Amino acid sequence: MIMKKLATLLSSVCLSFSLSYGQIKPNPAFQKHLWNFDDDTPIDLIGEAHGEPDQAASIHNGYLDLSDTVKQEGYLSLPGDVINLKNYKAVSIEVWCLPYLSLNSPNANMLWSFGQYGNPGKNYLFFTPARWGNGVAARISVGDEAPWANEDGLNFSANISDSIWHHYVVTIDSSNIMRLYADGALVTYGEQQTPAIDTLDSNHTLSKISNESAFLGRSVYSPDPTWKGMIELFAIWNTSLSDENILWLYQQGAKRGPIVNLAYTKKGDNKLNIVVKNNRMYIFGLPAENQKAKIKIYNTLGSLMYHSQTFRNGDPVNLKNGIYFAHISVGNESFTVKFIK
Question: Are 254 and 4 in contact (CB under 8 A)?
Answer without folding.
Answer: yes
